[in-house]
């Protein structure tokens, strides 16, 4: 019986996908499954998303793992392919590719294929990470249309840099630039990640690309999932393995970083950064035991954390479940306590954690 456990609730997942669809009723959904489905388990999550229209990943290996797992839906490679030899693999496996650079276009033009690949042309409207320059869109578009190995329909996409902040004028600027660039091109459009799905209905287009919100986590700044009618899919928990007294003035954990300011009891919980619990979680980060929030104290170790349960040792017993985040304890709050974002916490779950898949109602 493993200690650190990620319990994954399929009902919550499906409800969140339904929420995406109610927010963007006229768009098709490309469900983003990169990084092991944000730490939730690639194939088990894909199997539950029958209502998605396509899947998206960041690496061809992730796409191949979906096929090996029996997933037959179209899969989009969000960063495209990196080697010309990947093109045959894409064709054989019904992968679609983003084209964001000249080298990809040239490789497609020089390919010798028995079929054609579906392409998503990515335009950089201000993120300045991937994407062709706005000035080159017409050239790229024309060359893709002329390429015999590219399917006739050339989807057009872009990505927002600041969609998590609905007060940021940059979003409107990106949206307007994109609309200007694509106005003369009768093709499917795809712009919105989770934050834009929520904050910018005018960006929905023909396809949306939800990641984080499907997992029930808020993509919007200073907002929790419940406010957005999303349900956390993952609960990360472990067990109390010791309850022990500590006296006023005694230091706890590596570096003696925290000292008890009065006599108290500690619960030691079997989870640490070796499981993906963030080492930078500060003193006071809440841990839920028996429906009660207790503060983390002292440094997070590889395999354990220490929690201050106060003067009554009967409040917590060895073997009690401790919850790090989940439905009753927002991962957004834990991320803030660790000076990071929920995305990183989810992706950092390590192979030592056991996965338990459930369907609550
Ligand atoms: C990861 C990713 C998404 C999903 O982003 P969320 O914020 O998790 O919704 C969408 N589009 C692209 C290009 C991505 O890389």
From TrEMBL:
Binding residues annotated for substrate, in chain numbering: 129, 302
Annotated Pfam families: Ala_racemase_C, Ala_racemase_N
GO cellular component terms attached to this protein's record: cytosol
SUPFAM superfamilies, alphabetized: Alanine racemase C-terminal domain-like (SSF50621), PLP-binding barrel (SSF51419)
GO biological process: D-alanine biosynthetic process
Molecular function terms from GO: alanine racemase activity; pyridoxal phosphate binding
Segments forming domain Alanine racemase C-terminal: 233-358
Enzyme Commission number(s) of this protein: 5.1.1.1
Active site: 34, 254
Catalytic activity: L-alanine = D-alanine
Cofactors (names): pyridoxal 5'-phosphate
Superkingdom classification of source: Bacteria
Residues recorded with modification N6-(pyridoxal phosphate)lysine: 34
Pathway as given in its UniProt record: Cell wall biogenesis; peptidoglycan biosynthesis; Amino-acid biosynthesis; D-alanine biosynthesis; D-alanine from L-alanine: step 1/1
Keywords associated with the record: Isomerase, Pyridoxal phosphate
NCBIfam families in alphabetical order: alr
Similarity field: Belongs to the alanine racemase family.
Function noted in UniProt: Catalyzes the interconversion of L-alanine and D-alanine. May also act on other amino acids.
Protein name in the entry: Alanine racemase
Native source organism of the sequence: Pseudoalteromonas ruthenica
